[in-house]
Specification:
Elements (H helix, E strand, L loop, with lengths): L1 E2 L2 E2 H4 L1 H27 L1 H24 L2 E6 L2 E6 L6
Antiparallel strand pairs: 1-2, 3-4
Helix pairs in contact: 2-3
Length: 86
């Protein structure tokens, strides 16, 4: 069944993705609850910190360094930040 030129899955793409996100948040919460009971809250949070900091540093550090990421020939390169307003 199609509505216009969209298939039925394309119409509900956002709803399907949101259900997947809700399921993954639920599974994550249950896993961390179980792990917290096994090893304790403090060791669990110490283990979790590097898992959060590494993606943050990789994504934010280029902004601090004054470069921006841009694609070139299908490959992601770090290019110098250029200001056209100055």
């Amino acid at each position: 069944m199609a509505i216009g030129s969209l298939s039925s899955l394309q119409v509900y793409t956002g709803e399907i993705i949101s259900l997947g996100v809700a399921a993954s948040w639920t599974i994550t919460a249950l896993c961390f609850e179980y792990a917290g009971k096994q090893i304790g809250a403090l060791p669990l949070n110490i283990i979790r910190l590097p898992e959060w900091w590494l993606p943050c540093l990789v994504s934010v550090f280029p902004l601090w360094a004054g470069v921006v990421a841009g694609p070139k020939n299908g490959i992601l390169h770090f290019l110098p930040k250029v200001s056209y307003l100055a």
